[in-house]
Model the fold of this input.
Amino acid sequence: MNPSSNTPSRKNKAVLVTGAAKRLGREIALQFAREGWDVAVHYGQSATEASDTVKEILALGVKSVAFQADLKNESAAHQLFAAVTNEFANLHCLVNSASIFEYDRANSEKQLSSHSLQSHMQVNLTAPILLAQLMFDYQKSQRHSLENIPSVIQLLDQKLINLNPDYLSYTLSKAALATSVEVLAMDFAPTLRVIGLAPGISLPSGNQTDDGFAKAHQMTPLGKSSAPLDIAKAAVFLANANAITGTTLFVDGGQHLLPSSRDVMFKTN
Done:
């Protein structure tokens, strides 16, 4: 773990955001900070980027600490959560943003392998559920009113409604995580809320060009998909939406309403 914090918190609510060093996780962490939350920044390998994120959060006048953990390792997930709750006694929200997104497809040269599937399942499914269980156990020892119920937010994907065969291991892992949202919401109530948040195409992925991303981003009923800030604001909304649990919010410009036989990345190169 790599702590770096400012003065002690003033009873702010705290959030743990996994994968918060870069991309959507970073924007989510920053938005929680802008709204007055203390932020635990998890990272896997991006130590420099995590440090930069912490510095930017500290400049907003709230507490932030960076924590390193390899989410492929079950014991590391447990150690991460213990370290976070030791530093942030008022942990009120967990956002599982960290994920693997690597290409495979059954009918292609890059077929699914047991290694690919297991890697995606460990990071995209097992780690978020393990951390959610730890969050539930922790919250059982806290005192919260029914008007102030903590939450777990699982980052999903509009692709789960608009299915296509590309990114098979990723899709299977996120589909299982989506199922867990409803199941865990029932199991953890009324101690903890569990919600899914499904972005559309928000940032370039893989070898996608800027032009390809721009075209893909416009392929929705609204003429644009989600920006990172849209996802971040939605995450903070869900963390504060005390009556929402066991459901998924799609923030994608309606992208999930347009069926596609291929992932949008392959239609815009």
